[in-house]
Structure formats: structure tokens, C-alpha cells
Recover the amino acids of this structure.
């Protein structure tokens, strides 16, 4: 074979390699998708895993009994449910309702207490109406949440917790906040 | 030699005193350069083109360092700053460093293997003349609405999908540059494999030819992949495909994989021809044959092959599985082994040699020290937990400038000083050459050594502003950049002075140089050399 022919034949083969590599770039697209699917990485179209609270102790159920008192206060104060059952570690919410029956604004502060008393330290509140004073206009009705978690470290012998709120009037505040 | 086309219509006067074969010389005037098929003319054009691009890219680097001289925004707005870093990278990689070594290949490979010219002389002309048009597209993009792309030289999606028309010009420029490289590589492979002089077996070739042969294969395999990546970007931009657009089910990380599948071999495309130049220069000035020639060939091949399986070490932070990170980490570390073999062989070549330290040797030694340092920081960065800290900091900038500037550029300077007497027939000024070397070395380290500290302290790259605590090192770095820029004006002066009024050079100015262009060809070589191939024993 003459040198010219040899050169042409080699250049033809190299050109085919170059064109093949251009195609290879495009072949990487399905290849990449297959690899990602096979390895289970980068699955953008699938639903993200629902985040879970791994701290919930589903082996136990604790009954929370709700109680309410208004100490010398012209308020009707009651929980919307009298008891709920929760797992320790689970986020729970209960609601209370107060109605101001006086013809004047009144400010009150709720004080919680627990039975048994030592259950109080395992009672973690995220949001509570007892965190601040409440001022109600004459005749106003208000619903207020308590958001809480019972600590999974709650002693095994405690199966029922009574949670009681008592509202006291904040003297001298009247309707002023 | 029927494959060599001599198409100079008019025989001209014999401008070359050494033209003993009685052939016609080059055509006169501008058309000589437009229509030339002579490997020496084309090599010269490649070298000048890359110097012009080097100056342009250097000007942009000075712009970047000017802005970074002080914290806060002084000279350019952040958008233009991004355009400067992007274009600096693209122009230096594709316009300066790659063409300069193609220039060396054109001048040297036919002379070193005893061939009369490149295998496809007309194609060679075409490969070169594609380049200025690609460069024009790149520069033009600055004057389009929205300016040049400011996406970084890696042209990452999804930014590239959102840029203005300047991005399209850049994509076409990359296409043309890739085309030029592939054609040039096919030419080089064919020349080396088919046109060696009788007796010049592959394992007798000068190592420069070997490194270029392997580089050319890398180019043929890697450049089309880049062309594919930017083509996908182009169709995403204009033709409704969604390769990289997440809104249509594409994945920007896919772009990074495709780009770096090209990008890491590209690193060795830039480095290997430089290794070849150093492997010619060090034996010549040690007056000893290259130590471990065969192991050099195998090491180069090993580097080339492994370079295709390490690409994802550029993207440790994209969220790949740990198994992937581990694989790419170990593969990257393995590349250090053949590279270490090469460094060992260069040092062993000098061992007990009769060393002299002319300018080419100084640049080769500068290369040896600085490139090894850049290799070491590369090893540091290959370690996943460290890389995650260093990713996109100035430590990375320092690392790749040590291998690109002190590696590839120093090798190019070594090669220019080494072969300039042969090419021009005139000797450069040794004192000025040494001054150029020391200025370049000192200013280079001023720019980039301190950037290691900046990166370790957490200064991110590609940001025009920085925390005032980084100010001192940035000032030193910027002053170094201005100095390095000025030092290259001295280089230009040296080259022009050599061409115009250098002392006539002997056929073999370097005692220890023993490849065919020194032993078989006069200085300067005739316009058409080795029309009768020499027989190598």
C-alpha cells in the first residue's frame, strides 16, 4: 500500500473514532440515568421520604386528663376535650376556651399544676396560653392551644397525668396590656 | 513521498543560504501565510497566534488581579469580573497553551522523525486557520448584549442555558477549536505512525514525539465529548431539549460528568507535550541520554489511560455516593505513580550529568520544582474530606496554576529558548533570557504561592470582593501579576531581537542535543527538510 493510501486509511479510522466519541457524549445521557436508577441515587422524580420522628415510644400510651379552674375570676374556662391519649415523644395539641362574662376587660394569668406532681418535669410545652397574660374584652370568647410533648423518659409507672390550669386575675391591670 | 503536496506555483529566489537541496523557498507576502502548507510556516503561525492569545488572556488576568488588589469593588462590576475569569480560562487553555504545543509539534515532529512534512499538509493549514476565527468569536462575545458568558471556563449548566447571545458565540468557538484540535491530532498521529525515517522505530523516537502521539490520541477521544456537551447546551438553549434543564427532567450534574469526562484528559493534553519538551531539554543540558526512556513511554501511556477514569474528582461536592468518592479518590492517587516515575527519571537524568544552566535548562528546572509542587497540592485535593473543605477556594486556583503555568507554560518557554536558535538560525541573548526566567519564576510564585494561604483561610474563587482580612496576600498576589505581565514583554523583546539581530547560531548550539534536527539539519533548517529521508541506525 502506498504511503498516501496508508495515511488516508489511518485518518479515516481516526475520524470514525472522533465521530464515535461525539456520539459517546450523547450515550452518556441514558447511561447516567441508568446508573443513577440502578444505584438508587439522584431519584429526583420520586417522592422525598416523609420525615419521621424516631423518638416516639409507640409501646406506651399515656392518658392526659385535662382540668381547668378560674380562681375568683368572672371567666368560664374549660378544655374542649376532657382527656386525650398520647404516646410519649409524640407531638400533641389540646385546646381550651375562656369566656369573659364581666362587662369590663379583665387580664388573667394561668398557672399549671400536674398530678402526679413529678410528671411536670416530663411535660415539655412548645406553645401554651400560660406563657403570657391573657386580656379579654367584655364578653369575649377565646380558644387557646397547648402544644406539648410528653418526654419518653417518663417513669414507667406513670400512666395517667392530670394537667390542671388555674386562672388568676392580674390585679390592677384591668384591660390594660 | 506522493502524499506531500508542493503547490508553490512560482519558484522564488533562494532566501536561505542553507537550502542545499535546490528547492524553491516560500512564497512572498501575506499570501505565503494564508496558503502555506509548510509545517514550519504553520508551526510559526501557531506559535505567534498562541503568543497573541497569551497576551490577551494575560491582560484579562491583570484585570482580575487589579480588581482583587483591594477589598470592595473598584474597577469592574461583578458581572464583568465573571466574564473576565471565564474568558481568561477559555483563552489560556484553548487559545494559548494548546496551540503553543501544536506549534512545537508542527515544527519539531517532522524534523525529529525525519519526515519531509506533516502527512496532510493542506489539512494542516486548515487546522491552523480555524483558530483565528474561533478566537474572534470569543472576543466578539464581549460586545454582544449581556456581554461574554460569565459562567466560568467549565461552562456549567444551568447558567449556560440562561446566558445571552455571547454564550452561543462561545459554544461555536468551542466547536471550531475542537475541530481544529481533532484535525491537528489526526495529522500528528498519521505523521508519526506512517512517516518516520527508515530505522526510526517507535522506541527510538525522541520522547517529545511520544508524548505528542499519546496527546493526539487523547485529543481525538476527548475533544468530541466536549463538542457533544456544548452541543447539548446549544439545543437546550434553542431547540427545546432538556438535557440539563431540571424543569424538563434534565440534570445539571449530568453536564458536569460529561464536561469532566473531557476535562480531565484535557489536563493531560495540556501537560503531556510539556513533559515531552522537558524530556528533550534536560538530557541535552545534562549531556546524558534520558534516564529510563522505556519507562517514560509507559508512564506517559499509563497517565493517559488513567486520566479517563478520574474525572469526578472535580465534583466531589455534587452529592455522589461515598463509594463513588472513594473510587475517584483512589484512581486519582494512582495517577501520581506514573507522574512520580517521570519526575524521578528527570532527576536521575541529571544525576552525575555535566550540567550547565542556560535559559532552557533553567526553565526546565523551574518546571521540575514548580510542577512537582502543583502535583503535590493535586494529591492533597484528591483526598475527599480535604477537597470538600477546599472546593472552589483559592487553594484550587493555586494548584492548577502551578501545573498549568509553572508546568505547561514553563515547558513552552524552555522549548522556545531551546529551539529558537534552530528555527531562526540566530542565538537569543543569554543574559536577557536568564533575567526573563528569574523574573517569571519570582513573580509567578508571588502570584500563586500566597493563594495557597488564601484558599486555606477560605477565600472563595470567582468572586470580585473579599473579606478585608485577606487583603495583604491579595496585594502581594496582584503585584506579582503585574510584574509577571511586564516580564513577558521582555520575552517578546528577546524573541524579536533574536529574529532580527541575534548572533548566527551553529548547527548544534547545545552539546548534548542529539535528535535529528540538530545532527542532520543545518541551522536554520531549509524550507523543505528531509525530502530524502535519513537512515537511522
Amino acid at each position: 500500500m502506498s504511503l498516501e493510501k496508508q495515511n488516508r486509511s489511518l485518518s479515516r479510522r481516526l475520524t470514525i473514532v472522533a465521530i464515535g466519541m461525539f456520539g459517546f457524549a450523547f450515550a452518556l445521557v441514558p447511561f447516567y440515568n441508568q446508573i443513577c436508577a440502578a444505584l438508587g441515587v439522584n431519584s429526583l422524580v420520586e417522592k422525598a421520604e416523609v420525615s419521621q420522628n424516631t423518638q416516639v415510644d409507640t409501646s406506651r400510651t399515656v392518658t392526659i386528663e385535662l382540668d381547668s379552674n378560674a380562681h375568683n375570676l368572672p371567666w368560664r374556662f374549660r378544655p374542649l376535650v376532657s382527656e386525650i391519649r398520647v404516646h410519649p415523644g409524640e407531638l400533641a395539641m389540646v385546646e381550651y376556651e375562656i369566656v369573659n362574662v364581666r362587662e369590663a376587660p379583665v387580664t388573667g394569668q394561668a398557672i399549671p399544676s400536674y398530678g402526679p406532681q413529678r410528671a411536670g418535669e416530663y411535660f415539655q410545652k412548645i406553645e401554651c396560653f400560660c406563657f403570657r397574660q391573657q386580656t379579654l374584652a367584655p364578653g369575649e370568647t377565646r380558644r387557646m392551644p397547648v402544644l406539648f410533648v410528653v418526654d419518653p423518659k417518663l417513669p414507667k409507672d406513670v400512666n395517667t397525668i392530670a394537667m390542671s390550669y388555674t386562672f388568676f386575675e392580674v390585679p390592677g391591670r384591668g384591660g390594660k396590656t | 513521498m506522493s502524499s506531500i503536496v508542493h503547490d508553490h506555483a512560482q519558484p522564488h529566489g533562494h532566501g536561505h543560504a542553507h537550502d542545499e537541496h535546490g528547492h524553491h523557498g516560500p512564497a512572498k507576502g501575506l499570501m505565503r501565510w494564508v496558503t502555506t502548507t509548510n509545517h514550519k510556516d504553520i508551526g510559526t503561525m501557531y506559535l505567534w497566534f498562541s503568543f497573541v492569545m497569551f497576551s490577551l488572556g494575560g491582560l484579562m488576568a491583570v484585570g482580575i488581579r487589579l480588581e482583587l488588589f483591594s477589598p470592595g469593588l473598584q474597577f469592574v462590576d461583578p458581572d464583568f469580573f465573571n466574564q473576565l475569569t471565564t474568558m481568561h480560562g477559555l483563552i489560556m487553555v484553548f487559545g494559548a497553551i494548546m496551540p503553543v504545543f501544536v506549534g512545537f509539534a508542527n515544527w519539531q515532529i517532522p524534523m525529529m522523525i525525519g519526515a519531509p512534512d506533516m502527512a496532510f499538509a493542506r489539512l494542516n493549514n486548515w487546522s491552523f486557520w480555524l483558530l483565528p476565527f474561533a478566537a474572534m468569536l470569543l472576543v466578539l462575545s464581549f460586545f454582544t448584549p449581556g456581554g461574554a458568558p460569565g459562567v466560568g471556563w467549565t461552562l456549567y449548566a444551568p447558567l449556560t442555558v440562561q446566558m445571552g447571545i455571547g454564550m452561543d458565540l462561545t459554544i461555536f468557538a468551542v466547536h471550531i477549536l475542537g475541530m481544529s484540535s481533532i484535525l491537528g491530532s489526526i495529522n500528528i498521529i498519521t505523521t508519526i505512525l506512517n512517516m518516520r525515517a527508515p530505522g526510526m522505530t517507535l522506541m527510538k523516537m525522541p520522547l517529545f514525539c511520544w508524548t505528542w502521539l499519546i496527546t493526539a490520541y487523547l485529543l481525538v477521544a476527548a475533544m468530541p465529548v466536549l463538542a457533544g456537551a456544548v452541543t447539548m447546551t446549544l439545543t437546550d438553549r434553542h431547540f427545546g431539549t432538556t438535557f440539563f434543564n431540571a424543569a424538563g427532567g434534565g440534570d445539571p450534574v449530568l453536564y458536569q460528568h460529561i464536561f469532566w469526562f473531557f476535562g480531565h484528559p484535557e489536563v493531560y493534553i495540556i501537560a503531556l507535550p510539556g513533559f515531552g519538551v522537558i524530556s528533550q531539554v534536560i538530557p541535552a543540558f545534562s549531556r546524558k541520554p534520558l534516564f529510563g526512556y522505556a519507562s517514560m513511554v509507559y508512564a506517559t501511556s499509563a497517565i493517559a489511560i488513567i486520566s479517563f477514569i478520574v474525572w469526578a474528582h472535580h465534583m466531589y461536592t455534587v452529592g455522589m455516593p461515598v463509594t463513588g468518592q472513594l473510587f475517584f479518590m483512589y484512581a486519582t492517587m494512582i495517577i501520581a505513580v506514573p507522574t512520580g516515575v517521570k519526575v524521578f527519571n528527570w532527576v536521575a537524568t541529571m544525576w552525575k550529568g555535566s550540567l550547565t544552566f542556560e535559559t532552557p535548562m533553567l526553565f526546565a528546572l523551574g518546571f521540575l520544582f514548580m510542577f512537582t509542587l502543583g502535583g503535590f497540592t493535586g494529591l492533597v485535593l484528591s483526598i475527599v474530606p480535604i477537597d470538600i473543605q477546599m472546593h472552589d477556594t483559592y487553594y484550587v486556583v493555586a494548584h492548577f496554576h502551578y501545573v498549568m503555568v509553572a508546568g505547561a507554560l514553563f515547558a513552552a518557554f524552555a522549548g522556545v529558548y531551546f529551539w529558537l536558535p534552530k528555527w531562526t538560525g540566530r542565538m537569543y541573548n543569554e543574559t536577557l533570557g536568564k533575567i526573563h526566567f528569574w523574573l517569571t519564576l519570582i513573580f509567578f510564585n508571588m502570584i500563586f504561592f500566597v493563594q495557597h494561604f488564601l484558599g486555606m483561610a477560605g477565600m472563595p474563587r470567582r468572586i470580585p470582593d473579599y473579606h478585608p482580612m485577606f487583603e495583604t496576600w491579595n496585594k502581594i498576589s496582584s503585584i506579582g501579576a503585574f510584574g509577571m505581565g511586564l516580564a513577558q514583554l521582555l520575552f517578546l523583546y528577546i524573541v524579536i531581537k533574536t529574529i532580527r539581530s541575534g548572533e548566527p547560531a551553529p548547527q548544534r548550539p547545545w552539546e548534548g542535543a542529539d535528535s535529528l534536527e540538530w545532527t542532520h539539519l543545518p541551522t536554520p533548517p531549509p524550507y523543505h527538510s528531509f525530502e530524502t529521508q535519513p537512515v537511522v541506525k
